[in-house]
Amino acid sequence: MPAADQSSKDASFDQQTDTSEKEEKFDWYAQWYPVIPVCDLDKRRPLGKKVMGIDIVVWWDRNENEWKVFDDTCPHRLAPLSEGRIDQWGRWQCVYHGWCFGGSGDCKFIPQAPRDGPPIHTSSKACVAAYPSCVLNGILWFWPNADSQYKDIFSKEKPPYIPEIDDPSFTSRMITRDIPYGYEILIENLMDPSHVPYAHYGILKVPRSSER
Ligand code: FES
Questions:
Q1: What is each CA distance from 76 to 80, 108, 119, 128, 167, in whole angstroms?
Q2: Cα of 100 to ligand 1 centre, how many Å?
Q3: Domains and CATH numbers, the chain
């Protein structure tokens, strides 16, 4: 084969490899993830939870009439915001020094700041990360990246939707269970049906295959 032909073949192979590598790249932090069924939430109380390795707090913002998902870390001294409370104006209040936040994660009030001093609560350093979130199929979902480029992500990309869950002619039941392991262990388990008659003995009615 002439050298020129070979080099163009090599270039084409390299290009294909580059393309397939790009196609295979999956950004785990640019996807919707279910947090909890809404029926398990209480508008009077926060819910602290770890999802995708991120500590989050879910709370009901009565001013915007929607659930909010914040990073569970106060920007002041890193206290868990899930220990906080909703103040009389419906803002999220940190339990440590009382900083208050609006539904976008913006700091509304710093009790210790002098009233006639500079408005330090407006500093971006005083904001808490607010993740995009939505309710679909009766489930609260969140997008684990608070970068401003994802602020309106719901208008461009939606979580997976199962119409039957919202269809009253079907019955549905939500059950959640926190299991402290990663998805790869779960997938391995789900692809291994031979364990079912034994590990779930007496729970699932599946006949054992080669019993004598
Ligand atoms: S740690 Fe939250 S207000 Fe100080």
A1: 11, 13, 15, 9, 45
A2: 9
A3: 33-166 (2.102.10.10)
